[in-house]
Design brief:
about 350 residues, mainly beta, Beta-galactosidase, Chain A, domain 5, eight-stranded antiparallel beta sheet, four-stranded antiparallel beta sheet, 4 helices, 18 strands, about 10% helix, about 35% strand, globular
């Protein structure tokens, strides 16, 4: 009788026991795979924790972001039907970047925002809708961290490219938090372009409904200057934390603005209904006394946006967000190429 299968089984059990005991190196925690629809899925220890979707709406975004306790850290609508959830702002999906005025075209809203042009006024707005079109990946990599480096183009209503976008999302974790570094470069690769002063612009996430301050269930916004809730809107700050109840636990999301990021410390378009956006562009729309935040990019010029998202337990003090910001600010992010 051939004993090879039996020996293999014994050897497998020995290897597994040595790995558990720490005598062998553990498997790399992260893996990243391309999906059938052209997106990418991130797994941590074999469990999905995020998906980069490129075929929904008019821009790519991260969705199904799973926090440190296994809870979803974004609103489900419009991709998931969750009883009792709000259905406002259909374009506010997951975690992404958008801008309402690039060369006169809007990537923030989409046709569904305006009911697909049910009135002459909304039909006119639809003629000014642009998009962020996914063109491919520079890197998809797992290991001790996970990396999705995507290349996209910001286009007008006729699909003419206006800006190139490099977006690198680096996933890591600690015992009590999950972290995503979102590094974005906007490059005037197709000639000069104007980026307007717009309130609806920047890197953002739509938080779970239960965390929203307006729900009055304990949701709180606080920034690095100590301003809270509605008082944090339009303010400049190094970081902002949005925390509150999620499925029976108190959890939070912090966004840190790196000192190397464009117009640091950024202004914040953070709303009590659940929008959480770092916006260095809408200076005057958010503060009538400020100078215009419009940007004229010469051909070949580049804007760099550098942010760290921390999905954490408890409030900003329990998660030591001020300390986390100091650590983040002390290390220059790796450059994005090309």
């Amino acid at each position: 009788m051939d004993g090879t299968p039996c020996l293999r089984r014994i050897l497998g059990l020995l290897i597994a026991s040595y790995a558990v005991s720490g005598l062998l190196p553990a498997a790399e925690p992260y893996d990243v795979t391309k999906t059938a629809t052209g997106g990418a899925r991130v797994r941590l220890h074999g469990e999905p924790i995020a998906e980069y979707l490129v075929d929904r709406g008019n821009k790519p975004f991260l969705w199904q972001l799973i926090g440190p306790t296994g809870k979803s850290m974004t609103r489900g609508f419009p991709l998931a039907d969750v009883p009792g959830e709000t259905t406002d702002h259909v374009h506010q999906r997951g975690l992404t970047f958008a801008h309402q005025g690039v060369g006169g075209f809007d990537t923030w809203a989409e046709a569904a925002t305006y009911g697909y042009g049910d009135t002459p006024q909304t039909a006119e707005k639809i003629t000014k809708l642009g998009a962020i079109r996914h063109r491919g990946y520079r890197a998809l990599a797992g290991g001790t961290t996970a990396v999705i480096h995507a290349h996209s183009e910001i286009v007008d209503a006729a699909n003419k490219p206006l800006l190139a976008e490099e977006r690198r999302m680096t996933f890591s974790s600690t015992r009590d938090a999950r972290i995503i570094d979102v590094d974005i470069d906007l490059v005037a690769a197709y000639g000069p372009v104007e980026m307007a002063d717009m309130k609806d612009a920047g890197v953002y996430i739509r938080v779970p409904d239960s965390m929203a301050v307006d729900r009055r269930e304990g949701g709180t916004i606080i920034n690095s200057a100590g301003q809270r809730d509605a008082d944090a809107w339009s303010r400049h700050a190094e970081w902002v934390d949005y925390h509150g109840p999620v499925d029976g636990e108190h959890l939070g999301i912090a966004i840190l603005n790196h000192p190397s990021s464009f117009r640091h410390p950024t202004a914040w378009h953070v709303r009590t209904y659940g929008l959480f956006c770092a916006n260095p562009f809408g200076m005057k729309q958010m503060n009538p006394d400020a100078e215009s935040g419009a940007v004229s990019l010469a051909s070949g010029a580049r804007i760099s946006l550098r942010h760290r998202f921390i999905f954490h337990l408890g409030d900003e003090q329990q998660a030591e967000i001020a300390k986390a910001y100091e650590a983040y600010a002390a290390v220059p992010p790796a450059p994005l190429a090309p």
